Amino acid sequence: MNYSNFTEWKELWEKDHGVKMSQDEESRYHDGWKAASSLSFPQVDYVFDKGDKYFDEEAALSILLREGVLFSNGRKYLEDNHKEGEPDEISGPTVILFVICNDTFGWACAAAECLPYEEIENLYRMWQQDKMWGSTKWCCIHAGLKPMAPVEESLRIAGLWDEQMDKLKPNHWPYVPTEPYQYNLPGETDDQRRLRVSGSKI
What we know:
The protein has 202 residues and is of the alpha+beta class. It folds into two domains: 6-38; 57-166, no CATH class. It is 40% helix and 12% strand. The protein is built from eight helices and three strands; from the N terminus they run H-H-H-E-E-E-H-H-H-H-H. A three-stranded antiparallel sheet has the order 1-2-3. The termini are far apart.
């Protein structure tokens, strides 16, 4: 349990023990309380050892969750029943993790990529390299698809675009909307909006 101050803890102690705390005990406990309260525990992103040989997947996942790179959800899964010729059984649900990549491949597209266990280190290293765009690059590589044009431009500016990104499948998102034209005007179809945005005439 957490107690906001020593007096609150003392009252609960006395209630629990059924006696008043002696002056000597109060002094001793209060000194300990003050000493513990003065301690600071800095948040340490410890994932690699000094030789950079050991990678702590659990620590990396906790950091990526804390930083909003990952989000959790639930899903049922297939469990191997170890019986030849018989289908696996649906079990669960269990907690699963996704890498967020909203508005990466298209505007207003809530998207996410599954995170294989063996890819945790790659994702973490890319995010460490650039905490703004590193996970976006990972999502593009994992999906095998280039991002839409504005995201590609941001990745190039960040210095994250490389030969591997060039080899990904092209993104054919039809237009690059800019305010205030990213939504259809009253009575306007999607095709008419695209033509208007591109500056072409119908």
